[in-house]
Amino acid sequence: MPEGRVYQSIVQEAAYRRDVQLYKYAYTYTVTAIVGPNATTPVILSIEQDADFFVEKITGSCYGPCSAAGIVTPAVATDFDMPGTAVGFAGRGISIQITDTGAGRELTNGFVPVELLFTPGYQLGFFQPYRLQYFARRNSKLRFDIRNRDTQAGANQQIDIALNGYKYTVSEQDILQSQKAGQA
Question: Residue 107 domain-assigned?
Fold first, then answer.
């Protein structure tokens, strides 16, 4: 194959990717909370005004017991001791419910234990992220209700969540015009 053709195709690919990136690019939103024992903490994630956000995957990690500052406190008892460890390292306990408050749409069927959704969850190793595909419009609010089922005094648990996906900076008008053009 002649080198000129290969070079031209690379230039075209680079131009295409650059043009697409003006309107669509990878982005990660994060949520962090420390939840006290036998408590539910709501955390609101506001999708920024600059773009709609398409969630592709959700990941997260949890640990506990910890202090109110998120520092591990292994001397504190937990109802959910991790198998094979000394007392004071939680292997379970946090459940989560996710709701798009603007659309009034529940994204989970009630509270789901995080070890079923998140990687690494309570583990140290990383596995495949959970596919959670959802298109959140700009300015929408996602509510994460995070419940700690541990009842032991001082058994706070830390949770960090990442929503990986793409921001789309096209405006509502651009979408409507594109739809009208497609109907013509």
Answer: yes
Question: What is the per-residue pLDDT across 28-40, written as a single tens digit (0 to 9) for each?
Answer: 999 999 999 999 9
Residues in the chain: 184
Model confidence over 133-167: pLDDT tens digits?
999 999 999 999 999 999 999 899 999 999 999 99
- Cα 28 from Cα 167, distance rounded (Å): 9
Distance from C-alpha of 139 to C-alpha of 17, rounded to nearest angstrom: 27
Q: Quick check: is 96 in a domain?
A: yes
User: Would residue 119 count as lying in a domain?
Assistant: yes
Question: Phi and psi of 44, rounded to 5°?
Answer: -105, 130
Which of 164, 83, 152 lies closest to 122, judged by CA? 83
User: Do 55 and 19 form a contact (C-beta atoms < 8 A)?
Assistant: no
Three-class SS of residue 19? helix
| CATH number of the domain residue 127 falls in | 2.60.120.380
Q: What does the block give as tokens for 51?
A: 């773009």
What is 116-169 written as a DSSP string? GT-SEETSSS--PPEEEEEEEPTT-EEEEEEEE---STT-EEEEEEEEEEEEE-
Closest CA to 148 of 86, 70, 96: 96
**Phi-psi label, residue 107: left if phi above 0, alpha if psi -120 to 50, beta otherwise:** alpha
